[in-house]
Amino acid sequence: MAGPSPDKEFRLMVAPLQGLTEAVWRSAHYEMFGREQGDVEYFTPFIRVEKGQVRARDLRDYISLFNAGMMLTPQIIFKDAEEWRMLVDALAEAGAERIDMNMGCPFVPQVRKGRGAGMLCRRDRLQEIAEAMRPYADAIEFSVKMRLGIDDPTQALDLSEIINEMPLRHVVVHPRTAKAQYKGALNLAEMDDFASRLRHPVIFNGEVKSPSEIEALASKYAGVMAGRGLLARPSLFAEYRRGTELSTQEIEDAYLNLLKNVSAALAGILCGPSQLRDKLKPYWEYAPSTLDKKIVKAGKKQGII
Ligand SMILES: Cc1cc2nc3c(=O)[nH]c(=O)nc-3n(C[C@H](O)[C@H](O)[C@H](O)COP(=O)(O)O)c2cc1C
User: Fold this and answer.
1) What is the pLDDT of residues 51-71, one digit of tens each?
2) Domain regions of the chain by residue span
3) Among protein residues, the one whose CA lies closest to atom 13 of ligand 1
4) What's the CATH fold of domain 11-245?
5) Mean pLDDT of 2-26
6) What Cα–Cα distance (Å) separates residue 52 from each residue in 87, 138, 167?
7) Residues enclosing ligand 1, CB less than 6 A?
8) pTM of the entire structure?
């Protein structure tokens, strides 16, 4: 690894992961790596409308005191301009100056209703949202997080004009279709094609797991967003900024220490060991691949560390 990118503007972002990167994890991660990793933007998992109202639990995650100090952008998921406005107004009232728009969630019931990746085949609704953004653009900076299509990785090409007209800070692209969910080969040729048509800075998101992979992307994109790679290797961005990689043992220790800190913070909030166990279990799915299988197995079973 040749050291950090000479381009200081190269942006590093922590992907939103529902059930995993909520306020407690973000806070524990920021506490451990905030200083070393420098400027890093965190995103909330998507905030949604439920039964005609902005979900209070989602809003609480955004306004939580655990978020102190970090650069945090709330993300919304919406099916039309009405839902979009409801969410943006609620977040503006909560003090948000940046809002990220989810156009990539592959969860079928949401996609069918036109939310998340479902927005990728609804040009009319997207056009309406692009217009709805104008009066807000002075007060709020918007960004988009999207995929390349629903079942065809060239579908997003049709949207490039509308997206280019939107006032955006950046567009994060996960180079897969919704149908591919989170697995399989990345559609890199289609990604190149789509990125070349966007006038906004493009952020690469997908399977970024090591500092050298970030390094390789730094010449091509305005930034990277990492999700599962950062769960398994929480020091990823700190290592990249420092220009030296940690040993396998150090990476495993960092993973376990972060999980211990998350567990300690959750223990003070949740009601009893079974809630704590359920909340911690998903993190074990993203343990470093080198970690002793017995430790991972016990973790998956007991949750608690
Ligand atoms: C369990 C899980 C929950 C996710 N929740 C969200 C979410 O709330 N909002 C969003 O934009 N993406 C969500 N994603 C997608 C990730 O942000 C990211 O785009 C995806 O995992 C690919 O990046 P990675 O390979 O670095 O993990 C989720 C992914 C997973 C696996």
Assistant:
1) 999 999 999 999 999 999 999
2) 11-245, 249-302
3) 17
4) TIM Barrel (3.20.20)
5) 82
6) 11, 27, 27
7) 15-20, 45-46, 75, 102, 104-105, 145, 174, 182, 205-208, 226-229
8) 0.96
